[in-house]
Amino acid sequence: MDISVVVPLYNEVESLPELNTWIDRVMQANSFSYEIWFIDDGSKDGSWRWIEEQSNVSSTVNGVRFRRNYGKSAALHTGFEEASGEVVITMDADLQDSPDEIPGLYRMIKEEGFDMVSGWKKKRFDPLSKRLPSKLYNAAASKVTGIKLHDFNCGLKAYRNEVVKSIEVYGEMHRYIPYMAKQAGFSKIGEMVVQHQARKYGSTKFGLSRFIFGYLDLMSISFISRFGKRPMHLFGTLGSLMFMIGFLSIAWLGGYKIYQQLHGILVERVTQSPYFYLALTSMILGTQLFLSGFLGELISRSAAERNLYLVDKKTKVKG
Questions:
Q1: Which residues of 86-108 are buried (b: 16+ CB within 10 A; e: fewer)?
Q2: With 264 labelled, which of 113, 250, 255, 311 sits at a CA distance of 20 to 30 A?
Q3: How many domains does the chain have?
Q4: Higher pLDDT, 173 or 191
């Protein structure tokens, strides 16, 4: 099969018939073999009823329904598990992503050799209050991840099937799938300018809170990818540094006290100095950080997947 289209959705019953017809038209015009996976993220309207009815009359429509709303990441993860096409296309169900972009995304994967291609809504129909924070967020994400993309959160993306089978999307990490793909060893990540459609039905399901959560998720995935398998490298380094600062500070205070006594200078006790308690606190915090890294290392080394690596190719040597 050429293409699997994964569409996460939540209360989008008005747009589903038009979206399905649009995808069918594009696929048939390009002679693609395809399947569509509608992932209903606990909708309260008639979305699932439409998916069930359509799946009975169309061989290309498939669906999965969640008992409650789990979020876009969970929907994408489930869709990735079900997808069997050589190229997997994701798009939102609100008609803001154009299926007309599918052939271009497919060609970039199959002909130009990209592992993943992310859409870039260069011209957007969103209000300034949404566009400006999005620009700042994308600039920060690009800087932290080292991936030069203009629109990390664009729902319209294309992947090789191996990519979606090699990553786990959870929480709110759907914004950082390009970074997950890079960490999994798929480094050829491209970008394509796509058309942004004005929302035709309903209202957006995301508020300004996504920028706050997006920032926190960025810090989380950056930390996990760098230190998830070696926590001692971070906590041990910070702990040792803080302990040494505190120890040297106390040593200096003690040495300076001895020097003053040897020269007959009347001074207060070391424990009366506020610097003593700052140094002691630094040593205590340093010890705690070091122990945290040590415990984290024990847990990491005991994990069942500690030696789980993705193998690209394997061959048998003939002797």
A1: bbbbbbbbbbbbbbebbeebbbb
A2: 250
A3: 2
A4: 191
Helix (H) / strand (E) element for 290: namely helix 274-302
- The string of pLDDT tens digits covering residues 101-156 is 999 999 999 999 999 999 998 887 666 667 777 788 788 888 878 888 998 889 99
Better-predicted residue by pLDDT, 153 or 312:
153
Secondary structure (3-state) at 41: coil
The range of the structural domain enclosing residue 241 comes to: 231-302
Instruction: Provide the residue type at 210 as one letter.
Output: R
Contact 116, 191 (CB under 8 A): no
Tokens of 266: 């009347």
314 in any annotated domain: no
**Is the domain of 82 the same as that of 144?**
yes
Model pTM score: 0.74
Q: Are residues 39 and 171 in the same domain?
A: yes
Q: pLDDT grade, residue 4 (50/70/90)?
A: very high
Among residues 198, 227, 256, the one where a domain terminates is 227
Integer Cα distance of 175 and 17 in angstroms: 27
Q: Which residues pair with 3 in a beta bridge?
A: 34, 87
- CA distances to 39, 123, 314 from 317, rounded to whole Å, are 44, 53, 10
Residue 205: CB atoms within 10 Å: 16
Q: Which residues, other chains included, contact 292 with Cβ-Cβ below 8 Å and sequence gap of 6+? A: 231, 235, 239
**String of DSSP letters for 173-240:** GGGGHHHHHHHTT---EEEEE-PBPPP-SS--S--THHHHHHHHHHHHHHHHHHHSS-HHHHHHHHHH
Give the number of residues written for the chain.
Answer: 319
pLDDT at position 205 is: 57
